[in-house]
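Board notes (copied after class):
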Amino acid sequence: MVTTHTSSHVFSNSTLVQILDDLCVRFIINLPTEEMHSVERVCFQIEEAQWYYEDFVRGHNPSLPSLNLRNFASKIFQHCPSLHEWKDSHEQAMNQFIAYKSRVPVRGAILLNYDLDQCVLVRGMKSSASWSFPRGKINQDEMDDVCAVREVLEETGYDASESINPEWYIEQSIRSQNIRLYIVPGVSLETQFAPRTRNEIGTIQWHHLSDLPTFSKKRANGEAPKMGKFYMVAPFLPQLRKWIQTDGAQWKQWCRFE
């Protein structure tokens, strides 16, 4: 096995062609036969390779070009002999993959403080990115709550494995994609959040629920809250408000007598 130190040295002195060779070996060539016959599974591996290329390889060799997923996939399909059956139809393969991804269930969590009046939202690196609850796509054969814990840990650095309740969740279908968010109360406002992934999460921040659209009809100043960049948050807020009034109230009472 090549050590990280050795890999770093190799990457800093390698050409793009040499790096593509390395990535094909790392992510594609040793895939099980059944996965090699599924363009969706192959594209998932290509996506992993692209993240690795952008986050790790280019970190040691900034002279390499930045490649978005489609451009990177085009190079991999052309470069890797194992994928030559798709080299002339890689655009169609990527379209098929993107359509497939849009149907993969998403799992995450709504992290609430002890008073149940603030929640944690995350936002991507770009200034145009919208706010959302920490979440991500479920892996094949992965349990729902396990996926939620993993995604929250990756995006915020918070470990919810000991505090998640499998029965406390809100579920919505948005554009044919099933999204389930587990409700995790009692997170300290002093928690130090830090994403485990690179170049994905730009901001992690507490938000007052009363400031979010659809949670309450009006803010304290009498103005109606605007949707703004909370369109991936708003669909879950009516059910969250009901949970706070029922199970959340019982949880707070239980905490007082504990």
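Comment from the instructor: Residues 39-60 form the longest helix (22 residues). The two ends are 51 Å apart (CA to CA).
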